[in-house]
Automatic annotation (TrEMBL):
<protein>
    <recommendedName>
        <fullName>Glycosyltransferase 2-like domain-containing protein</fullName>
    </recommendedName>
</protein>
<feature type="domain" description="Glycosyltransferase 2-like">
    <location>
        <begin position="5"/>
        <end position="68"/>
    </location>
</feature>
<dbReference type="InterPro" id="IPR001173">
    <property type="entry name" value="Glyco_trans_2-like"/>
</dbReference>
<dbReference type="InterPro" id="IPR029044">
    <property type="entry name" value="Nucleotide-diphossugar_trans"/>
</dbReference>
<dbReference type="Pfam" id="PF00535">
    <property type="entry name" value="Glycos_transf_2"/>
</dbReference>
Length: 72
């Protein structure tokens, strides 16, 4: 069964690569994808995300221009 992990991200330049790699390196018998919902970051988050997506087709970039996430 495929799994998709959605990560809303905002100003996560320092931690984004480690977080994405931690998901992609999990042992899971099916396909895994990571969707990064990119908020309006003011650091290098978008560049890190773009580099990750270019290097691994399992990483998908989605714009989240408002930066909002659902409330619990």
């Amino acid at each position: 069964m495929p799994v998709a992990v959605v990560m809303p991200v905002l100003n996560e330049e320092q931690h984004l690569e480690e977080a994405v790699r931690a998901v992609l390196e999990q042992r899971y018998p099916g396909p895994v994808r990571v969707a990064l919902a990119l908020g309006p970051s003011t650091d290098g988050t978008d560049e890190v995300a773009r580099r990750l997506a270019d290097a691994d087709s399992r990483v998908l970039l989605v714009a989240n221009p408002s930066g909002r996430t659902p409330r619990r």
